[in-house]
Design a protein that fits this description.
380 residues, mainly alpha, two-stranded antiparallel sheet, 17 helices, 3% strand, flat, Secreted protein
Amino acid sequence: MKPSPAWTAAAVIAVVVLVAMLARPSAETAAPTAAASAPTQALALPAASAGSAPPVKPAAAKPVLPASPKMTVVDLCGLGRFPAATPADDDEEPLDLESLPGPVGREPLAAARATLLAQLRQGDARARAAALLMSPPDGDDPAAEQAWSRQLLQLAQSSGQPEVLAWAEGACAIQPDPMACHLGLIRARLKLEPDNAAHWAALADADPKASEEAWRGLLQSRRWQERPQSLLLAAQAALPDSLPGYLRLALGAEMRLRAPAPSGGGEAFMQERCQQHGRAEECGALARLLSERSDALHTLGNATALAQAAGWPADRQQRLRDEAERLARVSPTWWRRQGQPMACDAVQTWQQHLTEVARVGEVAALRELSARQAAASAAH
């Protein structure tokens, strides 16, 4: 991943400025001692009585000096290695570029964010919806909130894409009838993908009156597709190839936090149905669907519960449970990894994983990653 000449020049300037900042003496020097700084004063002390110890001169107060920050070497993909202060709190987010000096952290990150927003706002309905999710109103202006909500909902309805309809669900909270808005988005998703069990599960969660319809839809579905990282993928696709990798990764972490939660996984609904007598075959079919035809990691736990209700053998249930736990462990979390989470090897591995997620879905990508890790471990 080679940065463009423009980014390289900016990186060199940033490093020069940063090194100069770090080399410059601090304005806060140690305070001089009291003897050197305080004016001489004649103190009228009582004469010491015979046999008494001479009066003890009060000790000069020691100045309180600011603690020196610990320095470490930070490796930023596309920029290089340079010294920087470590976070005061060991639990601080490693990808918090706001804690780095401005020429390396806040300033290029803000410029990259602005570039991303400009690119998204010039794109199709999906891209413009992503831009709105990246720049919500601050909440102090009800008129701005209403305008933002209406625009996002209109873009979602015109996009013809189920994932964008799911992104827009948060805008329903600002509408006069949030439940009607929410149901309208789910119905629009069902119209586009009637064979997708994720939409029927969302319907069961949102509208108890539609439970029978939702159950029939679940049983007739052929897949469970949530596209859990679709917003992140849309944002990454809009970034210029010349953007340094560490900024791409930092913006990816931001988009991960911006992504709306799934509208509903139907766990309670399906498990309640599967407790009813005579549903073992139906629930076994749903367990297979969730474990074999799903792109969302969280469905594997639900598949295990349905398999138990369906009376699957204990060893088969255990295999499902073990796989769910194994894939959760290998699920990439580079933005929280210790060491050098912004170095090029981390960025490249993360982007390779995103490419696989876009190609085959989250669960299949994690299965492939787990298999590669197991093969590498066996080779050693």
